[in-house]
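Supplementary Text 2. Reproducibility record for the structural model of the 232-residue chain.

All settings were left at their defaults, and a single model was retained for analysis rather than an ensemble. We include the record here because the model underlies the residue-level annotations in Supplementary Table 4.
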Amino acid sequence: MALSAADPSALEASLTQHVFLTADHPTALDAKVFEDLGANTPDCAAHPYLYAWYLLIAQFAQKAKEAWPAPAAPAVSAAEDDVDLFGEDPNVEEEAKLLAASKAGAHKADVGKSSVVFEVKPASSSVNLDEVTEKIFANVHREGLKWGGDFKKVPIGYGIFKLHIGCVLIDSISTDELIEEIMAIKGMVEPDDDEEEEEDEQGNVIAKEKKQVELVEGPLVQSVDIFQFIKI
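Retained model, structure tokens:
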């Protein structure tokens, strides 16, 4: 049965197996179902996985969602194939049955997951937030952590923006460790300006001649906080 916004229970069941609807990466189906849901936010109590998925997809820009690939075709179940592939060899057939049984019993136990959105504030207005995001994706990774692949720039004031960047992670991963790793990210930044401001006789600040500044290596991030944390 095809997954759709009209059947939240089926979506919930699929999301207990994957980060996104059909895989651990987003597809065009995620974008379509999200669009069909519109402003109808799923019920957190009735469908917690679907609710967390909805908030995660909301972090992506429309342009990013439009580029998601089509979902892979579902694999054909062996139970749906009535053709006798084993001929008259009962040993091969028995081995196949044992292999299928072992795979059926080898499903991993459910692992607790959470949807987390981090709020990342830059060290200064000169910090390139695109660079910060690229460094987070490239350097902050481990098994059981899936970054959303997109981010939002949220205005703070005076032309300065902060990042909202989301991920899904398993419960064994420490958010404190992730925050430390993000805080440790460095890049080329403008050095601190320690020169005192000059004033004229009326007390007005005299505009200083703009000098070409040589960039130095320094921290790109001022602070990291958890903006949103949802158990799924």
